[in-house]
Amino acid sequence: MSGNSFGKLFTVTTFGESHGQALGAIVDGCPPGLSLTEADLQQDLDLRKPGTSRHTTQRREPDEVRILSGVFEGRTTGTPIGLLIENTDQRSKDYSKIKDQFRPAHADYTYMHKYGVRDYRGGGRSSARETAMRVAAGAIARKFLQERLGIRVRGYLSQLGPIVIDRLDWSQVHQNPFFCPDADRLQELEDYMDDLRKEGNSIGARINVVAEGVPPGLGEPVFDRLDADLAHALMSINAVKGVEIGAGFGSVTQKGTEHRDELTPDGFLSNNAGGVLGGISSGQPILASIALKPTSSLRLPGQSIDVHGNPVEVVTTGRHDPCVGIRATPIAEAMMAIVLMDHYLRHRAQNGDVQIDTPDIEKGRSRD
Amino acid sequence: MSGNSFGKLFTVTTFGESHGQALGAIVDGCPPGLSLTEADLQQDLDLRKPGTSRHTTQRREPDEVRILSGVFEGRTTGTPIGLLIENTDQRSKDYSKIKDQFRPAHADYTYMHKYGVRDYRGGGRSSARETAMRVAAGAIARKFLQERLGIRVRGYLSQLGPIVIDRLDWSQVHQNPFFCPDADRLQELEDYMDDLRKEGNSIGARINVVAEGVPPGLGEPVFDRLDADLAHALMSINAVKGVEIGAGFGSVTQKGTEHRDELTPDGFLSNNAGGVLGGISSGQPILASIALKPTSSLRLPGQSIDVHGNPVEVVTTGRHDPCVGIRATPIAEAMMAIVLMDHYLRHRAQNGDVQIDTPDIEKGRSRD
Amino acid sequence: MSGNSFGKLFTVTTFGESHGQALGAIVDGCPPGLSLTEADLQQDLDLRKPGTSRHTTQRREPDEVRILSGVFEGRTTGTPIGLLIENTDQRSKDYSKIKDQFRPAHADYTYMHKYGVRDYRGGGRSSARETAMRVAAGAIARKFLQERLGIRVRGYLSQLGPIVIDRLDWSQVHQNPFFCPDADRLQELEDYMDDLRKEGNSIGARINVVAEGVPPGLGEPVFDRLDADLAHALMSINAVKGVEIGAGFGSVTQKGTEHRDELTPDGFLSNNAGGVLGGISSGQPILASIALKPTSSLRLPGQSIDVHGNPVEVVTTGRHDPCVGIRATPIAEAMMAIVLMDHYLRHRAQNGDVQIDTPDIEKGRSRD
Amino acid sequence: MSGNSFGKLFTVTTFGESHGQALGAIVDGCPPGLSLTEADLQQDLDLRKPGTSRHTTQRREPDEVRILSGVFEGRTTGTPIGLLIENTDQRSKDYSKIKDQFRPAHADYTYMHKYGVRDYRGGGRSSARETAMRVAAGAIARKFLQERLGIRVRGYLSQLGPIVIDRLDWSQVHQNPFFCPDADRLQELEDYMDDLRKEGNSIGARINVVAEGVPPGLGEPVFDRLDADLAHALMSINAVKGVEIGAGFGSVTQKGTEHRDELTPDGFLSNNAGGVLGGISSGQPILASIALKPTSSLRLPGQSIDVHGNPVEVVTTGRHDPCVGIRATPIAEAMMAIVLMDHYLRHRAQNGDVQIDTPDIEKGRSRD
């Protein structure tokens, strides 16, 4: 209820601060019988972990996850899965300065107003380090969705600052540190990031996430629509400022004849809906897109105030990501997987094992 | 749990179908002692109700709400507030055709897959008629926020198809049927809508919603961030395909030095954050913007299939809104108010009546 | 969250005060396709309604329920079911006296402390009149359980004050106004109640509730055990002061060899567990027993204080039940049915439609 | 949602199996600013931990708890508190026999039906070992209640098999391994338990729990009554088969004049209500009593079946408690504290920091 849990039937609750002893999560509601090992989670965690290229923070965290419960003889038992990652690289940095300052565009100011106290070391609970547990939990959902239902959730970088990536070649996404689906744009991205680092600045990004193989019928009417839950999940990722489903803000200038995805016996003729109609999946690919703001930890000085209300000049010298969007792809995938898993279980509660095949009609054509 | 409730401490649960007997809601969690009458709710309902201009559906529904419980001698008692609106204009139309067709871009196809049965009359539960109850429930939240905390939630049309409204004059918003904040653009809107109606087509829109006077410290970390809950709430409105907070998708091309809202002892120097940092309110105005797709009920024929998978041509001849965005402003305001109310109660649970004054520093400058 | 909802997947939310305009409920989560009419609910409501014999309150309420949504062409659609009962017999009694008094053992004193205001007419929200909606909602659960799963939930009066009913003849239960399963004891009950009414006093009672045909495997580990949820549900009924499962408080003096229900290939040899082991159903009958306190609305004067703290003598002259236990059987059945329904849906979410047959082994012998 | 969480605003989620790697919990919703160290939790854990006398299981577990998050510089920060206890004494016992058997009155049979798989080592998730995390989490609630509100929660053994403890001397409770409040009965208890151990049998028990200093006004109407939540919490403890509030089952034979707790300006004249009226605290002590069944792990052979349905004779030779009631007192205290903490936060959400003093009137006389 204090906002550290997500999902109603597949529920992920996380704890942990950036520079605390450990991060942890409890995944409650995973059905029994799923084959699961720590390696299954580590695979996804390694995609998010820091320090894998010169374009991300240089904090060295192996992010090694332990499964402490809920798995027996290699299979889930239906009981809650306890996950733990010990923090290993909390440098004994001097925090005396940051302690009394509110860094602009960080949560320092708001946490202080909410709680009256705050763990100021590395952002404490507001640090994106927390998302490691989402990736670990999401890996469980992804495995279930893939193995049991043939649902594949994957994402990619579609824009980095001014650089818009138009071509989508899934085979390229994991071949570079940007999750960029177009190999021809890599040099451009490298150069842009190098310039940015020299400048001491940061930049925003856009990530697209797609779920294929989702059967029609997942979702709820009214408040917990599939797209509303996705918006909740994706907007809850650090630095996200916007969420689109399907045609998104493009719908504003569309006419009805243009937007409506016509159906034929051979499938849908377009996917402006992004795979969701009336809050419920249509069998087409689920399409979501998110905007991530530029990180606010900059070497370039900024104006702010201290806890006493006095003006201060803030310079952030720690280890930070110049583009938080770069490492956001696995996090967005994890959140989409958790939402789909949750809605699959809700669907099963209400309807039992109705045959959720994906007939020809749902194949349709998607935006991608 | 089936998605018909919203809010954890201020909880709104709705029921009702477009052409059923009645719509209803239970508002649970309203603190005792709030002065409340049916007129308080009716005021907001009248802004949303159909048939107020030639640009909206001609269905005649007075949307008269009854308060059935939870109010005694003019004040809330802390017990659940039961609300009821009887449907009066469910025309005894022949639904035999629509019964077997899946209208493109409607929830017909997905409801059928989810439930196996559906109330096909006027869209049943998927109809935007359900939002009347949100407006009624939201009116309670708005009254509490306004009277007790001085928080004002209000919205306006910022774009209708190609027509972008740049000027914001709050005094104009309720002077026209479009919720348009610029009187100089009304003729343009009228003409556009008249052409559209002749054409038999529909168009998308963008609505902005703003909450002023929100004290700093409302929100939760991680999953139930204030902005994530807003995204959930706003994306749950019929036809919404995108949600932005603050700079939104504009953040993608911003550099950190540009995006970060610097602070001075006199306040914030900008509001790219949209009033939320780390998921918690900063004391600046909360800024949200939503994209609404064009309605899919068109006189222009579209391809689809029937329940047997055969191709059909669908023409919708009923009473419909050519731009659902026009009536969406009160709904978006209601949902934002419900989210803020919920987070105010959560804040009070965790922190008690901490002094939530809005010192000078929070005044700052907003985007608007 | 304010305590007016019950159930996580089959969720019942109620509203309404004793002397307000109406009582209502929203039942969210009922699977689609269940045949349902108002008559199905009325049947159970008529068993609970007041004024059916001289031993209950003489308030005349037909308790006629309307189904306002969620049912289409005689079947549930999967959308929320809105229920409404208008109050018809709120006598325009003079409440000026009760308004300022705290009746002993009523909720007057505690509601005043909790809310600061209270609807003092007939107990307001604290009145057992609210349970009418539970019975209506429970009737939906009972119908589903009976038709789809062959589960039968039924209860009976097992003790009224000093009169312990030892014999259980189910065919008698609905043949008398006491829900007494032994016809030979009816005269004794009648006489006792007549004496009590003359005396102006009231008396406690014990009700047993049994669910037969429950498949093994329903329930959750740890906090939401089936028995824990039953305890919650049953203790939430007005006037209930104790809940037992199976051997209940008798277990305190049992040795392990006596308590443990041994199994053979032909079934369990006893049912001290009451059909629940480790929080999960065993396939044996679920056995629960509840204690109801005597009502506190008495003609015999009692000491109390008024809202100003002054001593007063309280005499209750209204229409009241001298033994609230008499009408409690349908309420207890309803609550047990709601719990079982909720756990059935939870089971289906986690395990899908696993074959939940009831093999010979589960038949066993029960306490009854 | 899968039953491993308790509490709506003060939420405890646990994980861990008897013979898994570790037990853990996340406590979400603890207000910021509470002084808290591991020693605060260890104190309560040491009261529950095994092996402290010859009358409990001889498994050697130090139950050393680590606080992994949510506490900074000795104070809670308002973020989730992660707790961890590593298991250290999971003997490499041969489980091949137990693996295929359903021990009578254990959860073996029901877990198998629910999940299809089970961690059979030491009962897995169904083991009372899980309650260690409840005690740790409860210690946080108890500290808050005591320090901030002056509420004291404590319990004692009131019956062990045939031995009823009538005298309540709180100072004795922690002076003996039975939590017995009467020093004169200790020899009797020792002798009884020694005989029982020789016999190879087990016995039931009754525990009373009392909360003093609870302000009036905590609780909710209808479903989440304070007593209903207590019943839920207490019945969720392993081996509990009955819960009473106040006069409990004694109410069945009480007349209204006897049961109703009259009020005078000097306070209540009795406490049959057990401190709860209409689901809301009255300011009197909260009184609850629970029945615990005898453990079913016995050296005396019992009939059962194996997973193939064949008859087997079960003999349990491991380390077990002959009376699980003996170590149940700290668990019951923890659960009551968690419920009160949760309702205190709910109260604060709805009413803010209303002055919750305990005027003279509430002191009253209690049953104890």
Topology at a glance:
The structure is a homotetramer of 368-residue chains.
Chain A: E1 5-6, E2 11-15, E3 22-28, H1 38-48, E4 65-67, E5 71-72, E6 75-76, E7 81-86, H2 96-99, H3 108-115, H4 131-149, E8 152-160, E9 163-164, H5 186-199, E10 205-212, H6 226-235, E11 240-245, H7 256-259, E12 263-264, E13 267-268, E14 276-277, E15 280-281, E16 286-292, E17 302-305, E18 311-314, H8 329-351, H9 360-363
Antiparallel strand pairs in A: 1-2, 2-3, 3-7, 4-7, 5-6, 8-9, 8-10, 10-16, 11-16, 12-13, 14-15, 17-18
How does this structure look, described?
Chains A, B, C, D: Belongs to the chorismate synthase family. Chains A, B, C, D: It is an enzyme of class 4 (lyase). Chains A, B, C, D: Keywords: Amino-acid biosynthesis, Aromatic amino acid biosynthesis, FAD, Flavoprotein, FMN, Lyase, NADP. Chains A, B, C, D: Its cofactor is FMNH2. Four copies of one chain form a homotetramer. With 368 residues, the first copy, chain A, is an alpha+beta fold. Chain A has a single domain, classed as 4-Layer Sandwich (Chorismate synthase, AroC fold). Helices cover 26% and strands 20% of the residues of chain A. The first copy, chain A, is built from nine helices and 18 strands. In chain A, the strands form six sheets. Chain A has a five-stranded antiparallel β-sheet, with helices on one face. In chain A, strands 9-8-10-16-11 form a five-stranded antiparallel β-sheet. The first copy, chain A, has a two-stranded antiparallel sheet with strand order 5-6. In chain A, a hairpin with a 2-residue loop joins strand 14 and strand 15. In chain A, helix 6 runs antiparallel to helix 8. The two termini of chain A are 37 Å apart. Chains A and B meet through strand 1, helix 3, helix 6, strand 11 and helix 7 of A and strand 1, helix 3, helix 6, strand 11 and helix 7 of B.
